[in-house]
Amino acid sequence: MGVNVTEAVNGISVIVCDSADDASKTTAELIANQLGQKPNSVLGLATGGTPLKTYQYLIEFNQSGRVSFRDATTFNLDEYIGLTGDHPQSYRSFMNEHLFSNVDIPIDQTYVPDGSTSNIDQHCRDYEALITDHGGIDLQLLGIGHNGHIAFNEPGSDSQSATRLVDLAANTIEQNSRFFDSPSEVPRQAITMGIATILKAKTIVLLATGSGKSDAVRAMLYGDIGPQMPASFLREHPNAIVVLDAAAAEGLPLNSAAS
Ligand code: GLP
């Protein structure tokens, strides 16, 4: 593993790693440390291509006895509307396959919004209440969309937003169509935790890898804070960490990059 450089940028701790693999391992270590300090942590978890390697490292750490999820509770950020949990492209299936079924977490301590609920508004209110009943999220893992979305909070989402039904942006549908047989199968709506829900987490860790994310990362860290760039609200959080690989950090005016 190369040397990681941490630098404070506009209120966010930015860790730049040599490779996507290093960044994923660093992120897994942050989560493992959280569980080490507080075994019954409440973790907020994310889907997408980005966290896959982090989950592989967590599975490795769990199987080698370095970390246990036995007393943890997890809340996922979002779920597609219209997919039942057993649909192969549902985020519930994703989490079961890529993390939950490979670690020692009891499945009834894992929560993912139900995209097939008959009462969406009530379900969203219940999801918020459940997070609060568990004492709030200790560590929230995030990715970032090419348009700066976090979870499914698309541009236009305000900082007070809670868990709710949202329409997906056209470019999000296009990006996510790679997981479906055809673009027409990609759901157009989702349930997502809101920006306010995410910002209530005690620690936030956003992982971004690859050159495709560098524009969004730059706008998040250096652009205006506002709904046009949902990830920029992390700069108003007291304990936000952004983990990048060199490609996602390319072109950032970091002090360490100048040396
Ligand atoms: C999805 C998820 C987000 C994720 C983003 C980036 O739309 N709702 O939580 O961060 O896409 O995905 P990827 O990591 O595949 O680039």
Structural class comes to alpha/beta
How helix-rich are the residues, as a percent range?
Answer: 25-40%
Order of helices and strands: EEHEHEEHEHEEHEHEHEH
Low-pLDDT regions: none
Q: Strand fraction band? A: 15-25%
Kindly state the number of beta strands: 11
Radius of gyration (Å): 17 Å
Shape: globular
Our measurement of the CA-to-CA distance between the termini, rounded to an integer number of angstroms, reads: 20 Å
Summed over residues and divided by their number, the pLDDT gives a mean of: 95
Report what the structure shows.
This protein is α/β, with parallel strands linked by helices and 259 residues long. It is built from eight helices and eleven strands. The chain has helices at 20-37, 52-63, 91-98, 120-133, 170-176, 195-199, 214-222, 255-258; strands at 5-9, 12-17, 42-45, 73-76, 78-80, 110-111, 139-142, 164-167, 189-192, 203-208, 240-245. It is globular. The mean pLDDT is 95. The structure holds 2-amino-2-deoxy-6-O-phosphono-alpha-D-glucopyranose. 2-amino-2-deoxy-6-O-phosphono-alpha-D-glucopyranose binds at residues 46-50, 77-78, 143-145, 151-152, 172, 176.
